């Protein structure tokens, strides 16, 4: 009987630890599930609404301009009487497209540059990284505006401008990973086995950095969407007739001062909710694959 | 067997910091078909010397001759024929195997890298039997096998291109006695059929004395005393 007491104490303590652990895990699970659900809803809306719902987002109805949210217009209408819910969905479609394309392009450029710098090493590495440092020292929104100003407004220039200014952090991450892998004995073994520089990079180094690069890409999607909105808001991004979230907020600026809050609030929520959901999911993935690297990726 | 030594190091100085080289003035010769044991305490620079001899690390000064040919370039710059003439087995199999490759790909990788993929089935069957790997292990990845099994695969990889010189850098330091015996037997089988030279680096005098034709001590290598075979 005497030896039962400490055993019971241990189990009790073990139980407390376990429940504390599950408590923490479940918070994270809830966050991941909510993020996944929100993201699924928005992506489905963006994919399904335009082909299924036969309503024209550009349909002007001046009799119904600037109406507050109601059953017929859940998000209200803008100053030309267009339905805001429909325009938000179309706007998110454009923003997501720009975000995905820009993130993909930026990741491909960043991975290629970072892997080349890391794998070549020496003066090539030093030159490439000094260029990266120089570009990083210019505020990237400014650089993006410069790129956009070179072209006619449209989806492609915006995607190019965001991609061209956002590969730098990926290049740094990939280069650092490649440098740490390069001195491993298995790379020595590959060199000794007659592998060329190209083969070592493609067969051994790139597959090892791919999870990091993919994660950087996912984290970059929300960032690219914010940039698209910022450029459009400044009137430099997408053409004014195109429903994009930045354009919607830009259009709503005047009516906000007159007390009409809905044309600003709902597009704003459409920027914040999907990007936070995406960032939440990517954050959970990042913690899973690499708990150390929290501050090195932006966001 | 020719008279030209397969490996000759002359007054070699190498390291990672020029002010404090890990290897100072080392001279060593491995005759064709000879097995030389290099004995030294840990941290003395043996592995650096092994990496230099495998053309993986450029020395600061001195000369290295492979089959009488002076080596002028290292790592990727070395001609492929010269690089692959030396096979290396490292101390830690975990670090010297790409974690993403299955054992069969690990062993076949040098054949693929040198454009000799058609030889893979034949060499794979030959080598796995030689080093004592069972076929079911070949489909596994490094984390699914033991250190000993992985080191067998690493030895097979080092032998797959039929090197004229094999460098074993503390190959058996992490392994138990029976695996050590099996690996040494596999190396000796290979040497008996091909007449390849061997440089076995280690700190276990008993093992090296039994395994090799002659054992040289690190202090003698760096003092420049024992450069020719038969000087013991």
Task: Offer a few descriptive terms.
heterodimer; A: 299 residues; mainly alpha; MetI-like fold; 9 helices; 76% helix; elongated; disordered C terminus; B: 232 residues; alpha/beta; Rossmann fold; five-stranded parallel β-sheet; 21% strand
What features would you describe in this structure?
The complex is a heterodimer of chains A (299) and B (232). Chain A is an all-alpha fold and 299 residues long. Chain A has one domain: MetI-like (MetI-like fold, Orthogonal Bundle), CATH 1.10.3720.10. The radius of gyration of chain A is 25 Å and the shape is elongated. The longest helix of chain A has 49 residues, at 4-52. In chain A, helix 2 runs antiparallel to helix 3. Helices cover 76% and strands 0% of the residues of chain A. The two termini of chain B are 22 Å apart. Chain B has a single domain (7-223), classed as 3-Layer(aba) Sandwich (Rossmann fold). In chain B, helix 3 runs parallel beside helix 5, helix 4 (120-131) crosses helix 5 and helix 5 packs parallel to helix 6 (177-194). Mean pLDDT of chain B is 86; it is low at 226-232. Chain B contains 8 helices and 9 strands. Helix content of chain B is 34%, strand content 21%. In chain B, a hairpin with an 8-residue loop joins strand 1 (7-14) and strand 2 (23-30). The longest helix of chain B has 18 residues, at 177-194. Chain B is an alpha/beta fold and 232 residues long. In chain B, strands 6-7-8-3-9 form a 5-stranded parallel beta sheet, with helices on both faces. The interface between A and B is medium-sized, with 19 and 28 residues.
Query: CATH top level of chain B?
Result: Alpha Beta
- Strand percentage of chain B, roughly? 15-25%
Overall spatial form of chain B: globular
Q: Report the uncertain regions of chain B.
A: 226-232
Overall pLDDT confidence of chain B: 86
Determine the CATH topology of chain A: MetI-like fold
Largest sheet of chain B: 5 strands, parallel
- Compute the gyration radius of chain B: what is it? 17 Å
Q: What's the number of extended β-strand segments of chain B?
A: 9
Provide the succession of SSEs of chain B: EEEHEEHEHHHEHEHEH
Which H/E pattern describes the elements of chain A? Answer: HHHHHHHHH
Which regions of chain A contain 5 or more consecutive residues with pLDDT less than 50? 1-21, 294-299
CATH fold-level topology of chain B: Rossmann fold
What portion of residues of chain B is helical? 25-40%
Oligomer: heterodimer
CATH architecture of chain B: 3-Layer(aba) Sandwich
How far is it from the N-terminal to the C-terminal residue of chain B, by CA? 22 Å
Number of domains of chain A: 1
């Amino acid at each position: 009987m005497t030896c039962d007491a400490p055993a019971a104490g241990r189990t009790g303590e073990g139980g407390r630890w376990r429940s504390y652990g599950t408590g923490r895990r479940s918070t994270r699970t809830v966050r991941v599930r909510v993020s996944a659900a929100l993201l699924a809803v928005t992506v489905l809306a963006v994919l399904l609404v335009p082909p299924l719902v036969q309503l024209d987002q550009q349909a002007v109805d001046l009799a119904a301009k600037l109406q507050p949210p109601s059953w017929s217009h859940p998000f209200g209408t803008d100053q030309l009487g267009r339905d805001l819910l429909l325009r938000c969905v179309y706007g998110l479609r454009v923003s997501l497209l720009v975000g995905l394309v820009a993130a993909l392009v930026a990741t491909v450029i960043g991975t290629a540059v970072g892997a080349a710098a890391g794998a070549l090493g020496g003066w090539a590495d030093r030159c490439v990284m000094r260029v990266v440092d120089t570009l990083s020292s210019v505020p990237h929104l400014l650089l993006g505006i410069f790129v956009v100003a070179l072209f006619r407004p449209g989806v492609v220039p915006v995607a190019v401008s965001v991609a061209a200014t956002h590969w730098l952090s990926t290049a740094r991450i990939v280069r650092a990973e490649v440098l740490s892998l390069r001195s491993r004995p298995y790379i020595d073994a590959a060199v000794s086995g007659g592998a060329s520089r190209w083969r070592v990079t493609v067969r051994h180094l790139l597959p090892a950095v791919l999870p990091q690069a993919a994660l950087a890409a996912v984290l970059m999607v929300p960032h690219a969407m914010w940039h698209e909105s910022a450029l459009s808001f400044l009137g430099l991004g997408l053409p004014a007739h195109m429903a994009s979230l930045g354009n919607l907020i830009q259009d709503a600026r005047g009516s906000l001062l007159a007390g009409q809050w809905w044309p600003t609030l709902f597009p704003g929520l459409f920027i914040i909710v999907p990007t936070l959901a995406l960032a939440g999911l990517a954050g959970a993935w990042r913690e899973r694959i690499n708990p150390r690297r929290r501050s090195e990726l932006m966001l | 067997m020719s008279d030209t030594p397969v490996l000759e190091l002359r007054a070699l100085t190498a390291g990672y910091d020029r002010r404090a080289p890990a290897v100072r003035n080392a001279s060593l010769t491995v005759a064709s078909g000879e097995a030389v044991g290099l004995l030294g305490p840990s941290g003395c620079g043996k592995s650096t010397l092994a990496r230099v001899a495998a053309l993986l690390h450029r020395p600061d000064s001195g000369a290295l001759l492979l089959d009488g040919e002076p080596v002028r370039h290292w790592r990727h710059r070395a001609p492929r024929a010269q690089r692959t003439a030396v096979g290396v087995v490292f101390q830690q199999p975990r670090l010297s195997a790409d974690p993403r490759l299955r054992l069969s790909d690990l062993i076949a990788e040098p054949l693929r890298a040198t454009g000799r993929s058609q030889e893979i089935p034949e060499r794979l069957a030959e080598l796995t039997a030689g080093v004592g790997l069972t076929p079911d292990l070949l489909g596994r990845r490094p984390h699914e096998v033991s250190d000993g099994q992985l080191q067998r695969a690493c030895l097979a990889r080092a032998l797959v291109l039929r090197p004229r010189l094999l460098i074993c850098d503390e190959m058996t330091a992490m392994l138990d006695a029976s695996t050590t015996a099996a690996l040494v037997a596999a190396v000796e089988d290979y040497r008996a059929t091909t007449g390849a030279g061997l440089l076995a680096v280690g700190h276990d005098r008993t093992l090296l004395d039994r395994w090799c034709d002659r054992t040289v001590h690190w202090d003698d290598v760096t003092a420049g005393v024992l450069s020719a075979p038969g000087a013991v």
